[in-house]
# Entry
Amino acid sequence: MLDVPIMPTKTPITVAHGDGIGPEIMSATLQILEAAGAALEIETIEIGEKVYLRGNSAGIEPSSWESLLRTKVFLKAPITTPQGGGFKSLNVTTRKTLGQYANVRPCVSYHPFVDTKHPNMDVVIVRENEEDLYAGIEYQLTPEVTSCIKLISRPGSEKIVRYAFEYARLHNRKKVTCFMKDNIMKVTDGLFHKVFEEIAPEYPDIQKEVWIVDIGAAKMADTPEAFDVIVMPNLYGDILSDVAAQIAGSVGLAGSANIGETCSMFEAIHGSAPRRAGQNLANPSGLLLGSVLMLVHINQPEVAERVHNAWLRTIEDGVHTYDIFTEGISTQKVGTKEFAAAVVARVGQKPNRLKPVAYAKRPEAAPKAAAKVAVNTTSMELKGIDVFVYWPSRNPNELAEAVGKLAGEGLTLQMIDNRGVKVWPAGRAETFCTDSFRCRFMSETPVGMGRLLEVVKGISDAGIDIALTQSLRTFDGQPGFTLAQGQ
Ligand code: NAD
# Structure
């Protein structure tokens, strides 16, 4: 009988070669993956500049969505978003459409081979990817005032916090730190913090830690070795993952994963660097390390390990592209193709001075980072309404006079504020006021929406412009709203 070698089952993935340096770094990456024995069935799609310029404002064709939904794994080279309005960010569209709730970015220093002030840095930023101020819900309320709504949900927070702990466990990390700012945003960041505290005890093997984001960020920039995995809401994560990649000394070397329940996307964190395109100059390392995250995700950890260790060995041997080439440290300045060939030649080798990586196979029954959604609210009571109005004279006492009498039975005008600072009753003359005021009408007992709408109608009938209304509720007796400063 003939010995037939058992071929590993190939995992289908979708690949986009992108724009600018994209095609060069993608072909280098795929060449290395192949040499390391990655079992991949590649479907290629076209995205980016050409698609945008064909008149597709999303930069991606419907047939490409079909491929993504079929393979559920997307290895994406950077694209160029054409200048001018009307073109939607493909990254944001992909993340949101495919529910990619977690952005994962390992930020590692490669001292002494890549210049850095933090030789022992090895931090993974896990950023919530769908919510927060990035829900993109913005309004201009009045000629002077704009607003952006910050949305933090319990399921969203549960998913990302659980993902961070699962990631830590799988990658043998010791600690998960939560960054947020619930001393100021008590309801939104307060929920994120609360969920972190609820989920952390499910992972007794992993240390937990909480920092207010401002001082936490300062500590991270100063002493990144003190951190391991850091989980945070979207905006802080967006900013701090760039800071972390930069201080590791390797913004051009970092890869990132956008993880969703249906489909995940893997990429470099840099853009398409059009000025470097077509010259065999670009460093393919960011995309290659993005593809390592992909290999772990599709449960090919041995291949991930081979690729990553060969890459570390190449960096350690001083074979560097122009962007990280340093006289005295580097031994050879190479182009994209030569760099890829150097990594291929080292497949099977491990670094000697840099720490080799080891990736574990994900247990088949690994719990998913799904939300528990343990919301046990039993009573929700309507207690009042905030009415944001345009009041160009900026005099809160006159506004109180005008709207106070419109409260009607059972409701009272409790306070008026300007951008969160109470200005009536007993406001201070020093408080700066814009043309947008919030009038809070409250009831001692639960009130119907019809009653609140009568107040809104009364204000409108009085000729006052209403910009926004927000109902005020208690949840199990606890107020679901904050007090104004000074209230
Ligand atoms: P960029 O990251 O493309 O390039 C900035 C500079 O960094 C380049 O000029 C180059 O000197 C250097 N650089 C970046 N990657 C490199 C690499 N792999 N090797 C060597 N040098 C590298 O940022 P940009 O110039 O602001 O943006 C260019 C285009 O990329 C824009 O159209 C932007 O919209 C797009 N972009 C795309 C993505 C993405 O697809 N994920 C991300 C960021 C920017």
Remarks:
- The pocket of nicotinamide-adenine-dinucleotide is lined by residues 21, 25, 78-81, 91, 252, 267, 270-276, 282-283, 286, 323 (CB under 6 Å).
- The radius of gyration is 27 Å.
- DSSP finds 13 helices and 20 strands in the chain.
